[in-house]
User: What shape does this take?
Amino acid sequence: MQRLLLLGLNHATAPLEVRERLAFTADQRAAALAALRRQFEGCEAVLLNTCNRVELYAGRAVHGRPREQDMIDFLAAARGVPPEQLRPHVYHKAERAAVEHLFSVASSVDSMVIGETQILGQVREAYDAARAAGAVGATLNPLFQRAVAVGKQVMTQTKITEGRVSVGSVAVECAGHIFDHYHDKTVLCVGAGKMAALVLQSFGALRPRHLLVCNRSHEKAVALARRFGGTAVPFDRLDDHLVAADVVVTSTGSPLPVVTRQRFEPLRKLRRYRPIFLIDIALPRDVEPAVGELENVYLYNLDDLQQTVAATQSKRGESVEQARAIIRDQVERYVSWHRARAVGPIIDRLYQRHHQLAKEEVERAINKMPNLSPPEREQLEELARRIVNKLLHDPVTKLREADAAAHGGGGNPGAAGAGAGGGAGGEGVASPYLHALEKLFQLDRPSGEDEGSAAASATTEAAGDAGGSIESSATTEPLGDGSEDAAKK
Amino acid sequence: MPTTGQLILLFAAIVCFAVGGATSFARSRSGAGAGPDKRAPRLLARALLVCGIACCGGVIVWHAISRGQWVPVGDNFDALLWLATLLAGFVLYVQRHQRLGALDWFVLPIVLLLLIGAAVFGRTEYHAYHPVVRNAWAWVHRATAYGGAVAFAIAAASGAMYVTASRKLRSKAPVGPQFGSLERLEHLTMLSVTLGFALLTIGMVTGGVQMLAEGKQTYTAKIVLAAGVWVVYAIVLHAPINPSFRGRKVAVLSVVGFLLMLGTIVTVLLLPGGVS
Assistant: This one.
């Protein structure tokens, strides 16, 4: 039995100052995942790191680690932040709540700008990074595959992405409160990332006099400048570009501010105190907040822009409600599937173990009776098998009944509306029985069981004493891309 | 002296401007956006502004007929009415061409003050032009002085709008399209100050000529205040040379200059005989 945990913070729970201190670069994320798995052996982990959120998803054994406090300590240590500074801003979810949260995140329902599509790519990227680090397994693999599929479904089946207000368009709107026209203005972009491109797209449409792209990697600057008909300029002459610019978009990956007050203050005179609009969409921030205190300097960071977006965007209530309905349905499906997957293998192993024991005892008995004919040997083997099935029938039936009762009686794991709970859905009535079975009969998972076979578990059940045979029935639900398809043992 | 009928018409103008300004303000406070819900209040505010101007025009004509004199700015009542009407007319013009919906929030209070001032201080006798300077000098002095006051009022309003919009932008509060852009407001302020400064300078020179011709004392409060106004606006006009004055400082100075200008007008009104 695996347990799913989530610990994170986002735009709603933590200010930008906290989020930027917890931001991971791609390398830092890979190192963090490796460190987490070293510290908590056997656990699975995905680290989702965007401008608005840092979330750590973990899958671990029911009585294993990490736990909530471990996860806080780990994140804090990874980024050098005191845990007590982190604690007031984090949220912790487990099992079903964690599944629902991830589906909402992937569908952009939990985003500050509802309907933005970038988050789906970011979820996929986080999953890919974890997979590359070998940090995902039977719990997080299907979960993240399902989350991406749900995100796609919401974005294609609802109108949630229609009419959304982008950060770029809001930046242009804010610039419109400062500048009247752009034919004599210079727009400077520091950094050449995806976000910079998005904002630059909005400003490029205004046809400014000069559009400059400045990046440490000159090749990237050239590529971005070419895309928007601008000019790539050298990074080491940033001060000159800041003097020339009226609108500056910063989006570098620098861990330290690129534009400090100390750097910018002397440039104001060279700029002849012209107003400047600084749009800092980097995390950690590229522009020191003190720069925004200077006269004729208007500094907007990501939070400022997104709050404006959130305030100005239409509510799109109907689409959001549709999205939430899809998410609820998909959570039920996933939870049911996961539950069936958890119960099935345990029953399977229970039968396998007991039949193995019976077989060994039958072998031992036959060895002591060398005169037995083959039909008699078969009779003996059948007898042992029937005894095992009869002995296990009642406990297994009770287990199934308890599981069904705990999850609303949904016998069909793929059926929407089946009860909540199970492995990902919380600790139902069946869970104590399952733990007891595992412990009493030592039904630990075979060491050689890989991700694929774990995902494709089967439920073996006795056919009763009539036929006395053992049959297996698949209890897994396809996860969209077929990787998690059921497979019979 | 205004008649009761003229005062009633003046009161109607005050009501039109007050309700129009309040409608315009309420429209913007009810949230950003356009559409039919917003169009009706905007049209109502515009119609009330036009009505107010028409009422003021009516009072000016009626007053001229009743006193038998068509030469404007002959007494306080006439002078303040002209000032208020010109200001309101200018708001109408600017709003039509510059898309500065919030300009009326800042100018109409000044207009209302001037009209109330006309009603209160307007009970002065007609001030005949001095025989020596009954010619163009006096006319030019009054026209430029009042024209300058109108320009400075617009500069002050756009300056106040600049300060408000700038503060909103800094605090990341929604600004709204009624404020236009800081660039446009700064341009309007500088344009108004330049025009007002030129008119004020002409007014001061022609006023000085009148004073010398009439043999009046030159160091009166009015003269000192007018000189103060001139200096403040000279500093404002200094901004292109010393750009550290740009932006908020110019906006604040234009408001300060207008307050001094108002002081000058009040001083003139309190002088025996009113308009001088």
Q: What stands out?
A: The longest helix of chain A spans residues 317-368. The longest strand of chain A covers residues 2-10. Chain A has a mean pLDDT of 80. Chain A touches chain B at residues 174, 176-181, 269, 272-275, 292, 295-296, 298, 300, 304, 307-308, 311-312 (CB under 8 Å).
